[in-house]
């Protein structure tokens, strides 16, 4: 009998562990993706995922546009395309960005496979192992995963109800430089931030840009939610103030996440590097998907559709805030977003939300523990809860169930002491009027 290959008989959990590149050590399972299987169970109210609610999309219009695309432009749509993206779509992307005060040329737009790939390409182009990326505290888990995967050191700068705190950014830059490390860029989500829901004020945006100019640091502005504000016209992007900002956008939140079409707007020298990186990664972003988005923008009142989405998400946001007021213990605080998908809920210090999650799932409600949004272990007593996908009725029921779990945890804390590490809190309800202290 022939002996089996050594790798098949190894008793190690992963027999290939000693063969992987060092950068794979930074590849970990996302706190959000790890919840998908549980949160998808029908009896569980999921306040965890940030899935856009596409129920209001005119699927008949979308279907007709795609049918017409295949019938009239099929040989082009189903063929390879250019690494920079479809020229017509890049023109339309400039029209979309104009709503946020950005005047851009299509030649400076690079279409990507969602804005997630744009984060990856920018990091690949700029960062060597050990370089520093400054991120908000907390920050988007998907971006943190990219930075870790490229072996970057992540330095956090605190946010409050007005967004990234300029003094915290200045301190992060100065201390990083003093330690002999190089800051490659600031990664920020200024509008309806994921995970906190807070929005950077106009004055803060100007100050943040000035700090970065003074220290010669690039700004990477990630703006997937910018057109989904509830009360105001779209806020001017940071890129509208400074043409040196690298701006990332996406159609995932305003049309279809499944088509995976995003973009980067960058200065011309950077754009060329992004195109080369794109070509080495995918040869080209999928032409069919790009042309489907382009057809939708051409054949449908997409701005009217976004208005419908804003109204739908505002109703769900209101349902969540009302339920938090009605059910949450007085010692909990939360943000009050005026757009986007998320609320950041903070519990009394000493409660470990990650340790609490299995008990919440048992009570048929899911959330994302706050530790997933930090690179340094903080955020244990906070969580991200999402209102974008469930109906208002399900949101209220989910918050009611969650409040019951939290009350039980607080009783355990009072009886036995802390259930987990005591974290630093990035949002302090006692200090900022946009958080609730009741």
UniProtKB/TrEMBL annotation:
Signal peptide, first to last residue: none
InterPro entries: Aminotransferase_I/II_large, Class-I_PLP-dep_aminotransf, PyrdxlP-dep_Trfase, PyrdxlP-dep_Trfase_major, PyrdxlP-dep_Trfase_small
Keywords: Aminotransferase, DNA-binding, Pyridoxal phosphate, Transferase
Membrane spanning stretches: none
One of the record's GO molecular function terms: transaminase activity
Cofactor entry: pyridoxal 5'-phosphate
Residues in Aminotransferase class I/classII large domain copies: 56-402
A matching Pfam family: Aminotran_1_2
GO biological process terms on file: alpha-amino acid metabolic process
Family: Belongs to the class-I pyridoxal-phosphate-dependent aminotransferase family.
Subunit composition and interactions: Homodimer.
Protein name: DNA-binding transcriptional MocR family regulator
Organism encoding this protein: Nocardioides albus
């Amino acid at each position: 009998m022939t002996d089996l290959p050594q790798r098949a008989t190894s008793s190690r959990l992963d027999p290939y562990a000693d063969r992987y590149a060092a950068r794979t050590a930074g590849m970990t399972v996302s706190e959000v993706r790890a919840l998908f299987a549980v949160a998808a169970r029908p009896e569980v109210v999921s306040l965890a995922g940030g899935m856009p609610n596409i129920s209001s999309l005119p699927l008949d219009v979308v279907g007709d546009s795609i049918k017409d695309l295949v019938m009239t432009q099929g040989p082009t749509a189903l063929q390879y395309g250019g690494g920079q993206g479809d020229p017509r779509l890049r023109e339309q992307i400039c029209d979309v960005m104009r709503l946020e005060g950005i005047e851009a040329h299509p030649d400076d737009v690079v279409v990507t496979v969602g804005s997630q790939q744009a984060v990856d390409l920018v990091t690949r182009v700029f960062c060597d192992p050990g370089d520093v990326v400054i991120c908000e505290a907390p920050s988007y888990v998907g971006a943190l995963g990219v930075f870790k995967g490229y072996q970057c050191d992540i330095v956090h700068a605190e946010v409050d109800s007005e967004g990234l705190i300029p003094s915290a950014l200045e301190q992060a830059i100065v201390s990083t430089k003093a330690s002999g490390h190089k800051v490659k860029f600031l990664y920020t989500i200024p509008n309806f931030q994921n995970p906190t829901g807070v929005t950077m004020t106009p004055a803060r945006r100007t100050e943040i840009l000035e700090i970065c100019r003074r220290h010669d640091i690039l700004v990477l502005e990630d703006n997937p939610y910018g057109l989904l504000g509830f009360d105001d016209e779209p806020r001017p992007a940071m890129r509208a103030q400074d043409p040196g900002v690298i701006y990332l956008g996406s159609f995932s939140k305003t049309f279809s996440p499944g088509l995976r079409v995003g973009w980067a707007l960058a200065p011309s020298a950077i754009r060329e590097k992004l195109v080369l990186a794109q070509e080495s990664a995918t040869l080209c972003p999928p032409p069919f998907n790009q042309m489907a988005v382009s057809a939708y923008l051409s054949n449908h009142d997409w701005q009217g559709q976004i208005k419908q989405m804003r109204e739908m998400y505002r109703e769900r946001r209101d349902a969540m805030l009302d339920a938090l007021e009605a059910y949450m213990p007085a010692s909990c605080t939360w943000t009050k977003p005026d757009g986007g998908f998320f609320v950041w809920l903070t519990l009394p210090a000493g409660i470990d939300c990650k340790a609490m999650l299995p008990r919440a799932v048992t009570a048929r409600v899911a959330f994302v523990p706050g530790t997933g949004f930090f690179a340094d272990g903080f955020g244990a007593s906070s969580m991200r809860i999402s209102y974008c996908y469930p109906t208002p009725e399900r949101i209220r029921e989910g918050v009611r169930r969650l409040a019951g779990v939290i009350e039980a945890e607080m009783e355990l804390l009072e009886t036995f002491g802390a259930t987990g590490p005591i974290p630093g809190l990035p949002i302090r309800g006692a200090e900022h009027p946009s958080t609730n202290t009741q």
